Amino acid sequence: MSSAHIEDAARTTGYDARRLHTNEMEIGVTDAVQWHVQRHVMSPNPISQRKLDFEHARPRWIREMAAEALGVFFYVYPGIASTASFFINDTQPAFGSIFQIGWAYAMGIAFAIITCGSTSGGHFNPAITLCFAIWKGFPWAKVPRYIFAQMFGSFLAGLIVVGQYYPQMSSLAAKFRSRGQSPNSLGGPGSILCSFPAPTETNYGYLFFIEFFVDSLIGIIIWAVLDPANPFVTPASAPFIIGIAYANMVWGFANVTISTNLARDFGTRIVAAIFYGGDAFGDYAAISILANVPATIFATAIYELLLRDSFAIIAKGHNVHEDGEEGLTRHLTKTGTLEGIADNIARRGQVRSGKYFWRGPKGRNFAKPTSACFLERCTSGAARWRQALHETSVAEVVFSDLPSPFFFASSSASASVPPFFRRYFSCHQLVSAAMTSFQPVAADDTESQSAVNDFTPTFYIGHHESKRPLPVTDFVLRQAQDVGYDMLTSPITSPHFHSRVLTLVSSYFSELAQLDSLGKSPATSTPPAPIIPPLNPVDTPLTPSDTLSQIIAYSSPWIDLCSPDPLIANISRQVLNIEIAYASFCGVGHIIIPGPRNYSSGSEDNNGLIQYARAIQEALTIGSYIQMAIQIPMYGHDDVREMTGDLQPFAREQYPHERPEENREIDLFETWDAWNYIRGVCKYNSRLSVALGLPRQLPVESLQSRWFAEPLRLLSFTRSTFLKNKGGHPVLSKSHQNLVSRYMRLKQPPWLLLSDVGPVPGLDDPTQLTDIADGFPSPSFVEDASRSVSVSPTPAEAAGSSSKDSQKTKLKVKDPAAHLIYMRYLQRNQPPRTAIERFGAGYQDYLQAPLQPLTDNLESVTYEVFEKDPVKYDWYERAIAHALSNWAPQGKPTSSPSGAVVIAVAGSGRGPLVTRALNASQATGVAVEVWAVEKNPNAYVLLQRHNEEDWGGVVNVVKSDMRAWKGPLRSSTGPIGHAITTTTTAPESPHGKVDILVSELLGSFADNELSPECLDGVQHVLAPDFGISIPSSYTAHLTPILAPRLHADISHRAITDPTATETPYVVMLHAIDYLATSVPDHPRIQQAWEFVHPLPASTLAIAEARRGGGVSGGGGGSMSGGDGANEHNTRYARLKFICKDRGVVNGIAGYFEAVLYDDGEDSKVELSTRPDTIDAKSKDMISWFPIYFPLKNPLYYPDDSELEISIWRQTDDRKVWYEWLVEAFVTVGPEKRMRLGMSENNWEGNGVSFSHEMCDVPNVHDLAKT
């Protein structure tokens, strides 16, 4: 179906036929239902011009009056009908109640607004109409018409109810008259229609007060609902809120009697006077009819004078200033609102955060305290937003709402716009006004701003104090937010709980000492280990509340889970479990657990690390929803701080605690080894992560890369991590800055925790002026940061002098928020992303199963993603151009009768390679005859359209499996296809040959999408002596990697899919570490095998003979029951990798390199996905992600080991699969090695690991491109 036909179908049926092939049930379900109804139930007639003319000719005032009358009718009729049913049946509960009557009025009001509100505005009350005229500018000329229509609607409702209940109401009237009572009294038929007080209610002042108060309350609610700046009311909910307001008053004051609406009462009272006597207009009638008007005016006056925020309405775009932008500018200038904004924008070209800035001494910006802040606090979080200036005098406001997972109620990346933005800065007028004071932006600022616009990562920065003096209250959180922190840490338990535990331990030891003094045997008289009682309110500062979403809990650092004393280890485990359980109860989302006291698991006398790992595993079970981060230094040991009440010294003498030697050599990978041990015991739990402590001296690059691959949740910075610049301000070294930039490129970047850098500024004195960490510090803060001089000690020296550094860095910093200010500066000055990072955003470490290219027909959107890579197609065009340029000089004949070079694109897809072949022909001036072969029937249609509209009909489009294509078809009179130059010379054979065969069948591992099999099948059309293939060869490459995130993901999938660990995946490898070290003869990434095209004719002849059964024997396919025709495409490689540092192999990373064209001279065109050669051969190419071969179980190896990878490409003539095996060896002698371990392997060759049914061949691409 053509697009024109599709559009016609959509117009006539109301159904978008273009969705038929997309399977968009979630999106198209409404259309589908609508189409079904129109097809099977009814077919709507088109709207006639006569109908449009009639509707256009209707007087507006008639429509408005009719809407008001009908609206009041819909409002009054359900209410008085429900009242009639109640009174006529002697108030029996089966026939109604006051509750039912209230709901009847509520729903009637909702029906009225829904039905008629869009036509007239939905006043339905004379008092509301008057208020609109007074406050909203409603035309006074319309007021009488509206009031008349409203009263008429009420009169009509009363008249119809009397007609419907006439016998019953007449009988009720007769009964009242027989008792000497007027029918127009409470309980009589007149009271069904309008309000009458009880006979005992003779105090008309009291009745007026009740009516006035009720009507005032309803009026305020109506005005609040109609306020466009009210964020709590949506248009859809307004009818029901107003209706419920009326119902509430009915339920509360019906026993006294209320009217609530002039029109409702006056119209029905006329009906009561007509049928039941003129006494319906008695003394109370004036109150019932008129009290509603002054009460509603009074209520709306209160709202307009005290509650209305007109500036918010302007900011939301619901209204404008009466004098336009000039008036708004005048207002902002007069009130001082513009002063702070303009001043800061002019100085920095940047709107800061939602605070009021003023310039202090030396040009520094300060934020006024909260009490003096003219902007209301952003209650939804510390959203930071920026304003980009352009060289023109127009300001384009770009707000970057950075939703912190703590200060926002929701951690969703699409959090709502902060209230201060919605209220004050969404209007274009304000920005235009501020532009009057803008100054030009310097060139260097413009470049910096461009980098920020390209990539501004979100830094979530927290504050941690080991000895926080105050509990984390709402005030503390607000103060931290004002300064610029996103989160705070809080201990789970208090010092009171700590003292209880110490008392318990001391009492137990005292009891043991007493038993020892009595000479009793410890084996028979030792009391059981003490049990810590449950928490009391004084034992913890935490309680379930909304503020917990802004807090990271911190477990007690004074416990020792690694203690060799079983008593201390038991008490420590109890403390941890109690804290985890209570934090889980309160709803804490994240907990930091101090790391083990001893990182070595190799000591003969110490089993502390396994005890620690077991305790963490238990804690993960207790806190089943809590994210836990183990605090571990990057290397070495944490600074030893004397803690009052530390449990470690309580260990008994018979259990000596192993302490690290002061001068022993630092084992750089010791802390990583401990972390790997802990997470291995915890089975790679996805809720377990690392809080990594950064030292002052960074280690070697290999260790930094190792931690980069781990699940980092926090990066911890202490005072000792920072240097001092010339101005005395804390800054990070260049290597630290690079590390932060690298780690913040992770798919889930870690949070940054400033630990013990000083208290939150302003807690002692909320009125003090505090620098704001907005990313724009004064130059002295970061001056000479990159040239800061610091003698860099070795890791051993750094560890040994850590205590001295800690004391030195306790010197008072000039600004209490200096560390935070610098970190925000780093955030704003992050380097821009590369092309690959921009393209792969969101795909990092995302596992994708490779396509089955011989059975799948790709969708257009998949092809479209492929075509976004300009590098690949540029390189293909270069290769074709080189081949064409060298064709004649090399003396090659052509296969076309016209003398044109015949090019066939096998698997043309949507035609990008066809376009590039034509471009190469035009650039070189060499005539070509192009054939586009495509199996996908959908892509075939598009290729024909391209040929007609874009290629001028010069391309021969063929729908065929490339292996079944017999070659260019020739006729007796000339070529069937069109070429740039043609001739009438007739060929001897009906099918010609191809000179250049172009394909893009490569996969992530070169051959994993069956490029060898596909090109072997189409080689019969290639000219045997001089034909060339593009690509001409390709090689597969391997390297072992550490990929804990991928391993955890695959292990989780293996729970429901047993083949998950046996399947290679296409993945954009990101959080990984390359384990091998490049040494002579053993590079980090090594070639496994190579495929070359075209194959020798003898190889194809043998394969064809075996396919027919003429040759038997051999291996591969023939041993698996096949005939072995594809055995020439099997491969095997065994590669050795040298690993200097210990590690864990989670899998194998696979890459490829391809030679598109090589004439042996200087025209070599190559593609590469190897990270070490991609820049040299095909920089910024994004078409292929690497392939990942996982290991079912991680393989650990020690320092100075050798890894050997064995990999097979297998086939049984029906499918192709891979088998892989990893072995670890260590050298134990000059010529002797010992195998340490071996991974499992899929030896069965059943295609479970990786198979391609060798049947249909669509255009083949790699899934990484999607």
Question: What layout of secondary structure does this protein have?
Answer:
Blueprint: H1 3-13, H2 25-40, H3 49-57, H4 60-88, H5 98-120, H6 126-135, H7 143-164, H8 166-178, H9 189-193, H10 204-225, H11 238-253, H12 262-276, H13 285-290, H14 292-307, H15 310-315, H16 324-335, H17 337-348, E1 357-359, E2 365-367, E3 386-389, E4 395-398, H18 419-425, H19 428-434, H20 443-454, E5 461-464, H21 474-483, E6 487-491, H22 495-517, H23 522-525, E7 551-554, H24 566-586, E8 590-594, H25 608-622, E9 627-633, H26 670-681, E10 688-693, H27 701-708, E11 712-717, E12 723-724, E13 730-731, H28 734-743, E14 751-755, E15 770-771, H29 779-782, H30 795-800, H31 802-808, H32 818-828, H33 835-839, H34 860-866, H35 870-887, E16 901-906, H36 912-924, E17 928-934, H37 937-949, E18 955-959, E19 970-971, E20 974-975, E21 996-999, H38 1011-1018, E22 1028-1030, E23 1033-1042, H39 1044-1054, E24 1065-1066, E25 1073-1074, E26 1086-1092, H40 1097-1107, E27 1131-1139, E28 1143-1157, E29 1165-1168, H41 1174-1178, E30 1187-1197, E31 1201-1211, E32 1216-1229, E33 1232-1238
Parallel strand pairs: 5-6, 5-14, 6-7, 7-8, 8-9, 9-10, 10-11, 11-14, 16-17, 16-21, 17-18, 21-22
Antiparallel strand pairs: 1-2, 2-15, 3-4, 12-13, 19-20, 23-25, 23-26, 23-28, 24-30, 27-31, 28-29, 28-30, 31-32, 32-33
Region (Disordered): 783-810
Keywords: Membrane, Methyltransferase, S-adenosyl-L-methionine, Transferase, Transmembrane, Transmembrane helix
Domain PRMT5 TIM barrel: 484-829
